[in-house]
């Protein structure tokens, strides 16, 4: 008999909520998280370690923002129906937009409602519970369903391959994470790459590329700027995730990267687009001229020479 005590308590709770046909509730009401523990004891064991537990511990939140019912909605009809999923907000059957709307009831300010709704993830119908697991998180930060890089690799398999290249950022080694450069909830408009938001890349100080958070020597300001760096950004020459080329360059040989812009015949004048041309004295058949940064060492910007010489 003692082993069935939880079921007796559940029936008693349901009976109190129902109160018979004469007092049937017109709409579902809040019953409190303690009632949820009766059927879901496993989920409540470690819930006090969950950031969402503060909605219970504070004792100041209204019922619609407290504990289990803060996310799943009022539970009286769910209890009376003996666990019918259709009587409660079950995230496992909700559409991604419904999940997002539910989470933004509390997280609108921290995530930026405008950014997350227009982010690449939201537009691709990636819901919050595609990356986060509220009850069974495997990460110490962000309630992620897995370690951060494994969550991202679940969809971005091509990026996983790039991080296995000889020259790459050390994400797999745990030195950094995807969110050091990207904002998965949507990034603000950037002032590089022609004002676009490339791949939800986050911004650093003064709306700069996140690369400058680590590579501070490339920040400037410089008296003579390399337009490709300022306008198009680091990705105009580098592959940010990883590549088989040294220095993570887009091409295996240095001068071929430079010749993507500095091409054609002529003097040290500029072409129709204002790009400085390679002078005729630079014979690319001669190996001496194939390593541009031997002379143009300040290629990211210079305070001394407009040709970025030493």
Automatic annotation (TrEMBL):
Residue ranges of coiled coil: none
Signal peptide span: 1-26
Domain called Doubled CXXCH motif: residue spans: 121-160, 171-219, 226-264
Lipid metabolism is among the record's keywords: no
Pfam families membership: Paired_CXXCH_1
Molecular function GO terms recorded: oxidoreductase activity
Domain of life (superkingdom): Bacteria
Gene3D superfamilies tied to this protein: Flavocytochrome C3, Chain A
InterPro entries linked to this entry: Decahaem_cyt-c_DmsE (IPR020015), Multihaem_cyt_sf (IPR036280), Multiheme_Cytochr_ET (IPR051829), Paired_CXXCH_1 (IPR010177)
UniProtKB keywords: Signal
UniProt name for this protein: DmsE family decaheme c-type cytochrome
Taxonomic lineage of the native organism: Bacteria, Pseudomonadati, Acidobacteriota, Terriglobia, Bryobacterales
